[in-house]
Write a structure and sequence with these properties.
Pfam families: DAO. The protein is an alpha/beta fold and about 375 residues long. The chain is built from 10 helices and 18 strands. The protein folds into 2 domains: about 180 residues, FAD/NAD(P)-binding domain, CATH 3.50.50; about 150 residues, D-Amino Acid Oxidase, Chain A, domain 2.
Length: about 375
């Protein structure tokens, strides 16, 4: 058992792996990752729908995406492993005037930041998906540089590169508490004994709130189930399509091999760590899907290929990043609200800056610090799926 490390990272998902890699790249290699499960990359990262996009309502989120997606484009040469980035685009379909006005404001901001994004008429949007119903649509936005990726390949690439630099991984090692002295974290407690440290980074994903509570901190990150359903091979939609979102219902879909991957969040479902597929919710998903895409009525369901995972959600749907003002030596990197895969490259860079330089500086993360919940200065992310 390791009895000390300069930095302890809690969680071996894509965020923890990216931070470990970026720390090691900067020369800080006395790092240990503690993973509660017996296998790394076995939680939310492995159960993601894998979307990556620039189309956010928050400038900071757009900047995180702009940096991260560029890094994913060059992932194999810069890190190793496979990002499998497929830039097929994101297509948002809007049928409400107020929502359309918000999306137009978003587009103006995104373009100002150098993001390629188009506004489309319903007729122009209809070219992407056969037989799309457009009679009630007002417009659509399309980001050609958006798409999806391989979350497992990205996390594994970061993790193996970090390990090559000397970062250590300990599996089956849940955090059971913290040792705190003089207002500073001095050790992380595990069933195998304490691990002394100068800095601890909470990347525990859906369990980040529980981990923070062990240190006496109130971290507003809660787990919520998200279901992903898969059709059998569906040649009726044979060409690549964008990851397409019917904003009015929240239904989304994209191709996965020869099949269609689809889902829709259930806003009435309470917080839990349940990762069993909700078959009762499937009817609502299919109803919304067929309403907008009648062609789906002929699709079969591949039950064995459906799954559920967890979003780690904050009240404003933005992550919590950076040092905690109430506990020295403790840093948050959680609460991504479904955007952790796409923002992992930028998060790794910024948290490494927070550790080594004392403050993140490549992108200003002040509005993502936990202080915002005390001041009430919340700017909720509008584009949430």
């Amino acid at each position: 058992m390791i009895d000390r490390a300069q930095v302890v990272i809690i969680g071996a998902g894509v965020i923890g792996a990216s931070i470990a890699f970026h720390l090691a790249e900067r020369g800080l290699r006395d790092v240990v990752i503690l993973e509660r499960e017996e296998a790394e990359i076995s939680g939310s990262t492995a159960r993601s729908a894998a979307g990556v996009r620039h189309q956010f309502s928050s400038r900071t989120n757009v900047l995180l995406s702009r940096y991260s997606i560029e890094r994913l484009r060059h992932f194999e040469e810069e890190v190793g492993g496979h990002a499998e980035l497929r830039q097929v685009g994101y297509l948002f379909l809007i049928n409400d005037e107020a929502t359309w006005a918000q999306y137009l404001r978003n587009v103006a901001m995104q373009r100002e930041l150098g993001v390629r994004v188009e506004t489309l008429t319903p007729e122009e949007a209809a070219r992407f998906v056969p037989q799309m119903r457009i009679d009630d649509l007002i417009g659509a936005t399309f980001g050609p540089d958006d798409g999806y990726c391989d979350p497992y390949g990205i996390a594994l690439g970061y993790l193996r590169a970090a390990q090559r630099h000397g970062v250590r991984l300990r599996r089956g090692m849940p955090v059971t508490g913290f040792q705190i002295s003089g207002g500073r974290v001095t050790a992380v407690e595990t069933p195998s004994g304490p691990v002394g440290c100068d800095m601890v980074i909470n990347c525990a994903g859906p369990w980040a709130g529980e981990v923070a509570a062990l240190a006496g901190l109130d971290l507003p990150v809660r787990p919520y189930r998200r279901n992903v359903y898969m059709t059998t091979p569906f040649p009726a939609i044979s060409a690549p399509i964008p990851l397409t979102i019917d904003v009015g219902t929240g239904f989304y879909m994209r191709r996965e091999g020869q099949s269609i991957l689809m889902g829709r969040s259930n806003p009435a479902e309470p917080s839990s760590t349940n990762t069993n597929v909700d078959w009762d919710w499937l009817e609502a998903v299919i109803e919304a899907g067929i309403h907008r895409f009648p062609i789906l009525e002929t699709a079969g369901l591949a039950e064995q290929q459906c799954w559920a995972g967890l979003y780690e959600i904050t009240p404003d749907h933005n992550p919590i990043l950076g040092r905690h003002p109430d506990l020295e030596g403790y840093i948050d990197a959680s609460g991504f609200s479904g955007h952790g895969i796409m923002h992992a490259p930028a998060t790794g860079l910024l948290i490494a800056e927070e550790v080594i330089d004392g403050r993140a500086h490549t992108i200003n993360i002040d509005e993502l610090r936990i202080d915002r919940f005390r001041s009430g200065q919340l700017a909720s992310e509008f584009n949430v799926i």
